[in-house]
Amino acid sequence: MPSKKHTARKKTEPAAEPRNPPKVPGLSARPVWQGHLRLSLVSCPVALYKATSKSNDISFHLLNPNTNNRIRMVPTDPEAGPVSRSDLVRGYEIEKNRYVILSDEELDSVKLETTHSLDIERFVDADSIDRLFWDEPYVLLPTDDIAANAYAVIRAAMADTNRIAVGRVVMHTRERLMAIEPRDHGLLTYTLRMRDEVVNMAKALESIPAATPDPQMVQIADKIIEQLEGRFDPSEFRDRYEESLRDLIRRKEKGERPVAVAPPAAPSNVIDLMAALKKSLGAPPAHEKARTKTAAASVKTHRKRAR
Predict the structure, then answer these.
(1) What residue spans of the chain are helical by DSSP H?
(2) Which of 68, 98, 130, 293 is 20 to 30 A from residue 117's alpha carbon, by CA?
(3) Could you tell me if residue 142 is inside a domain?
(4) Is residue 134 domain-shared with residue 219, that is, in the same domain?
(5) Model confidence over 107-159: pLDDT tens digits?
(6) Is residue 84 part of a domain?
(7) Counting beta carbons within 10 angstroms of the beta carbon of residue 190, is it exposed (0 to 12), middle (13 to 18) or buried (19 or more)?
(8) Does some domain include residue 141?
(9) How far apart are CA 60 and CA 56, in angstroms?
């Protein structure tokens, strides 16, 4: 009998299971960018998610008060009247009423293709990046379990050396400079502003007149600072305008008539700086004053409703 030939089967590694983004309030379900994080020859697939959210911000629509219908903005030529949006062209003003007209094809010719890799170009000390250059924060997450290994190596090495990675990526046709820093067991990424986007602070501060402060006044100011020292807890700081706006909307929805509140008195010019500094010693912090005023206002409102 002829012998049966056994063909060796090649072992194939199972494909990495994609990771779903964590369900965090405010974190989008879809990434703003997806590709590979590259450190020399080491790479891992990652996804970029916005680390901030404006989902809680109040926004308004413009309505026609006679019909309560939303208004449509119609582009209008001051001489020719309404113009169709599809007929509009883009122009760059080179001087008053003189424009260079650019077609969509010409604009497309200089667009940068979205890249699928975030290449680390160098590592820098965190203190070497001026805070003026830090822009939008993002969370950088591995997209699968296999990628998590390389991701963990890069993060651990950055934490050990206390360095921040700087790289480039193209998102939505625009090249962005990125800073990557280790945060706990993950990576936090910031877009960085370019040099021409940041004001020359040295020039901006030249207009401040030279003055030598009184040492005694500085000592009193030091004590005031000591009184106000504490850790930063973002939960202690609320958007009072947003809260008041939501309360106003709730009361209007119930048919209540809003009560006008007198604006706070404008601060007077300090004539006797030393007297103002001494008076400030022992004064309650501003956030405690705000709490007292809010509590007093809520008690007043409660009493009015009880009548």
Answers:
(1) 104-109, 145-161, 201-204, 215-227, 240-253, 273-280, 286-306
(2) 130
(3) yes
(4) no
(5) 878 776 667 889 899 999 988 999 999 999 999 999 988 889 999 999 999 99
(6) no
(7) buried
(8) yes
(9) 13
